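Regression report. Comparing outputs from two consecutive submissions.

Submission 1:
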Amino acid sequence: MASDNRLSDMSRPPLPPFTRETAIQKVRLAEDGWNSRDPALVVLAYSVDTRWRNRSEFAVGRVEAEALLRRKWARELEYRLIKELWAFEGHRIAVRFAYEYRTDDGGWFRAYGNENWEFAPDGLMSHRHASINDLPITEAERRFHWQPGRRPDGHPGLSDFGF
């Protein structure tokens, strides 16, 4: 079921322009949302007219973004994500990330990528451009072992793993 677009007038702090502290906070909030694997919840952080490039898929608006996420998490099982701030300025943030997932045939992957984000004054993300590469891994090579949902505080980040 598609998200309710009437929620478009809400504010999503922290708001731009970002400081280093608020950019890091925004990145962690995005990571937490995506680790929920709840498409209807995740898209609430995006503007109603958000524009995405995710791999070779393009989505315009929350409804298309939510559909993209539903397809994604139907095939990327046991998904666990870590994001890290790369750079920020004004109303833009760049992040790098890695996530691990299993396919329905039992294969494990680690996806590495970069995202460029642009935010509206209300703190909703208006543009998301993601470049992602998948690397097959063995189950023994997995590094992201927390219970589904939010990555626990104190769990190693990307730099800690040398990713």
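Submission 2:
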Amino acid sequence: MVPLSWYIILSAVVFSIGVVGFFTRRNLIMIFMSIELMLNSVNISLVAYSHYLQSMRGQVLVFFVIAVAAAEAAIGLAIIIAYYRNNPTIKVDEINLLKG
């Protein structure tokens, strides 16, 4: 049996990779992938704690997090595609169309 601490360490490592990717990458698609990594690390910890506490609440909450992540990915990619049609770059440093 795998102890709970291993799952929490795995979740922390995946979350750290997502945070580093979010702050270091300048490509919008890579930033969205980093956000997805962070959401998946939260899902790992929710399922681990849910199993440890013998409760289904964490596992049910994971389904809602997955639904929000799917909606975020769909809307985010639609925004990126709409922006890319007008300006052929997806680098964060070069985006200035949305400035007011």
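Expected: both submissions complete independently.
Actual: both completed, but the second showed a warning that disappeared on reload.
Relevant detail on submission 2: The two ends are 55 Å apart (CA to CA).
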